[in-house]
């Protein structure tokens, strides 16, 4: 399972940016063949992606959705690629589509289901338990558009929580939250990333290299969190078991597990 917190998109029709994306500090890089690429550049973007993943660093690719004119060619082109890290399927709604995609890819190549529609959220448990996906990602902008809502926090809480719960129940890697479009608004990005982490997401999609360090920082435990977790685990190691008190707080197994996860996140 991947422990990446920042997932950086780079347009597939801008191959001159691929190396910069890889050097950005992002946990994972995704060459985008979908939203970032106009229809007349789809083929050249696919060729550039295939060349990169075959000759350079292992990378993810977001292909075009099932039912589009480019989906089958995307899958066929990537089906024989060495160096392919994994594939994101946008507009993921049906378990059988993900199973078919996974079967068409080389052994060891992972699949992430990008859930971004009302139907996708309705059937998110089936998607999560289909046996073909590493993780779920939430496409917040497309979801808001699909349901006719504004892409604001309170309108998306239900869908975000559904993705988090489905991921956990299915034993998947922690899900990935959607993008923040305000590239140069550091405060908005920090706020969005903090919210995503509090809701249970393990990372966030990024659309610009400048977003990567902020996302990485917000998903990492701060000094106070880490100190708290380490102190709890130290006291627990000396205790004889059962519940105990630290700083006036009753500490039992769920709290200890939270502390272990904070230490693990810091190590990652």
Describe the structure.
It contains twelve helices and ten strands. By secondary structure, it is an alpha/beta fold. An eight-stranded parallel beta sheet has the order 6-5-4-3-2-1-8-7. It has a two-stranded antiparallel sheet with strand order 9-10. It is globular, with a radius of gyration of 20 Å.
Please name the defining characteristics of this protein.
268 residues, alpha/beta, two-stranded antiparallel sheet, 12 helices, 10 strands
Order of helices and strands: EHEHEHEHEHHEHHEHEHHEEH
Residues in helix, %? 40-55%
The main sheet orders its strands as 6-5-4-3-2-1-8-7
How large is the radius of gyration?
Answer: 20 Å
* Low-pLDDT residue spans: none
Main sheet specs:
8 strands, parallel
Shape: globular
Q: Would you spell out the secondary-structure blueprint of this structure?
A:
Layout: E1 6-11, H1 18-22, E2 28-32, H2 42-55, E3 59-62, H3 71-78, E4 84-89, H4 95-104, E5 110-115, H5 118-122, H6 124-128, E6 135-138, H7 140-147, H8 153-170, E7 176-177, H9 186-199, E8 203-206, H10 212-219, H11 223-238, E9 244-246, E10 249-251, H12 253-267
Parallel strand pairs: 1-2, 1-8, 2-3, 3-4, 4-5, 5-6, 7-8
Antiparallel strand pairs: 9-10
Helix pairs in contact: 9-10, 11-12
């Amino acid at each position: 399972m991947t422990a990446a917190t920042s997932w950086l998109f780079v347009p597939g029709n801008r191959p001159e940016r691929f190396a910069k994306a890889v050097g950005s500090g992002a946990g994972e890089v995704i060459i985008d063949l979908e939203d970032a690429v106009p229809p007349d550049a789809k083929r050249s973007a696919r060729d550039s992606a295939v060349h990169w993943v075959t000759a350079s660093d292992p990378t993810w690719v977001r292909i075009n959705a099932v039912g589009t004119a480019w989906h089958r060619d995307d899958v066929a082109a990537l089906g024989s690629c060495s160096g392919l890290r994994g594939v994101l399927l946008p507009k993921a709604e049906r378990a059988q589509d993900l199973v078919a995609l996974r079967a068409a890819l080389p052994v060891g190549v992972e699949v992430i289901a990008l859930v971004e529609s009302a139907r996708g959220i309705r059937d998110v448990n089936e998607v999560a338990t289909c046996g073909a996906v590493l993780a779920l990602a939430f496409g917040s902008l497309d979801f808001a558009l699909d349901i006719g809502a504004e892409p604001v926090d309170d309108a998306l809480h239900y869908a975000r929580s559904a993705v988090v719960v489905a991921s956990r129940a299915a034993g998947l890697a922690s899900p990935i939250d959607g993008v923040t479009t305000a590239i140069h608004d550091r405060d908005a990005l920090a706020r969005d990333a903090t919210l995503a982490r509090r809701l249970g997401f393990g990372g966030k999609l990024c659309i610009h290299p400048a977003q990567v360090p902020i996302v990485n920082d917000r998903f990492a435990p701060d000094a106070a969190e880490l100190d708290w977790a380490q102190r709890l685990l130290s006291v627990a190691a000396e205790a004889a078991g059962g519940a105990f008190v630290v700083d006036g707080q009753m500490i039992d197994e769920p709290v200890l597990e939270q502390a272990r996860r904070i230490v693990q996140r810091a190590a990652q």
